[in-house]
């Protein structure tokens, strides 16, 4: 057994005490402020409501539907736990809008603790057939949107806060019958950005992670037709599509200071066993 001096033992106790601080961290988001991009529907809506259930005040970002965003705000206020919410319109593929979104978040609630980069689009097509307009849409929202909003948030997000990006199992696995090289590439960018920003922000104890959902009940899944939808179901060990609420739980896990304390630069695959071999 190794022998340690009194000084080393004392130093060791300090190191271990510091590394176990997660025990005393909050297991909720009371008093924190979360910004969720594209939160008026689907996974973003579920994330916004889940973070509010944990006590966060939430900025519900939307681009197109003010009415849908207002419904999410109303649902949060109806929780009755004191969580507040506001809806802010912004197109995160615009650097000016992304800057304004973050500034208005701080203006509304005085701070920012959790940034969820949920905004994203899917456009499918073989590499030589995908319309360039669709390619530019993928780049604009899935890449520029994440980069611009993260860039705007870094100077103001609280030390010890969290940035959580949405990726996809498509960045890790080829899905037969799913021509989506460009989409997969944009999600690969998100994975790489997450790791890099996690390293950059580690001195401030800001945790930066990614969640990769698997096949999920969504407008996209509904549009694929019965045969392809069944193919997506078969990918899961549980033989079902995920729900937006399934994915929201993964975001909540990483956002909460206690459960997420020892996670940064990671990619949490929330896919019911799909791409399990990875």
Summarize the structure.
The chain has helices at residues 6-19, 42-53, 66-77, 95-109, 132-153, 181-201, 219-222, 226-235, 244-255; strands at residues 33-36, 57-62, 85-89, 114-117, 162-166, 207-213, 267-270. It has 278 residues and is α/β, with parallel strands linked by helices.
Describe the structure.
The protein has a 7-stranded parallel sheet with strand order 3-2-1-4-5-6-7, with helices on both faces. The longest helix has 22 residues, at 132-153. With 278 residues, it is of the alpha/beta class. Helix 2 (42-53) crosses helix 9, helix 4 packs parallel to helix 5 (132-153) and helix 5 runs parallel beside helix 6. The model is unreliable at 1-17 (pLDDT under 50). Helix content is 44%, strand content 13%. The protein has a single domain, classed as Rossmann fold (3-Layer(aba) Sandwich). Belongs to the short-chain dehydrogenases/reductases (SDR) family. Keywords: NADP, Oxidoreductase. It comes from Polyrhizophydium stewartii.
Comma- or semicolon-separated keywords:
278 residues; alpha/beta; Rossmann fold; 44% helix; disordered N terminus
Strand order of the largest sheet: 3-2-1-4-5-6-7
State the helicity in percent bands.
40-55%
Unreliable stretches (pLDDT < 50, length at least 5) are: 1-17
Number of strands: 7
The major beta sheet can be summarized as: 7 strands, parallel
Q: Helical stretch count? A: 9
What is the CATH topology assignment? Rossmann fold
The name of the CATH superfamily reads NAD(P)-binding Rossmann-like Domain
CATH top level class name? Alpha Beta
Question: Which architecture per CATH?
Answer: 3-Layer(aba) Sandwich
Order of helices and strands: HEHEHEHEHEHEHHHE
Strand content: 5-15%
Mean pLDDT level: 86
């Amino acid at each position: 057994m190794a022998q340690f001096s009194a000084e080393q033992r004392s130093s060791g106790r300090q190191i271990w005490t510091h590394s176990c601080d997660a025990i005393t961290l909050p297991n909720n988001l009371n008093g924190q402020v979360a910004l969720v991009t594209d939160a008026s529907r689907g996974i973003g809506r579920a994330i916004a409501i889940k973070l509010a259930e944990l006590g966060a005040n939430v900025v519900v970002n939307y681009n197109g539907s003010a009415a849908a965003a207002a419904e999410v705000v109303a649902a949060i206020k109806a929780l009755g736990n004191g969580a507040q919410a506001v809806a802010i319109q912004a197109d995160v593929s615009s650097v000016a809008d992304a800057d304004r979104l973050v500034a208005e978040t701080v203006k509304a609630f005085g701070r920012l603790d959790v940034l969820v980069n949920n905004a994203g689009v899917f456009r499918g097509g073989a590499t030589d057939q995908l319309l360039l307009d669709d390619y530019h849409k993928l780049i604009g929202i899935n890449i520029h949107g994440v980069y611009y909003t993260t860039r705007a948030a870094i100077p103001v997000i609280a030390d010890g806060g969290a940035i959580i990006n949405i990726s996809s199992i498509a960045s890790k696995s080829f899905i037969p019958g799913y021509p989506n090289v460009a989409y997969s590439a944009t999600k690969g960018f998100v994975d790489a950005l997450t790791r890099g920003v996690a390293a950059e922000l580690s001195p401030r104890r800001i945790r930066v992670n990614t969640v990769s959902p698997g096949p999920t009940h969504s407008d996209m899944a509904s549009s694929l037709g019965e045969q392809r939808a069944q193919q997506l179901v078969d990918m899961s060990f549980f033989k079902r599509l995920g729900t937006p609420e399934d994915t929201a739980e993964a975001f909540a896990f990483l956002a909460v200071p206690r459960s997420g304390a020892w996670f940064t630069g990671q990619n949490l695959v929330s896919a019911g066993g799909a791409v399990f071999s990875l």
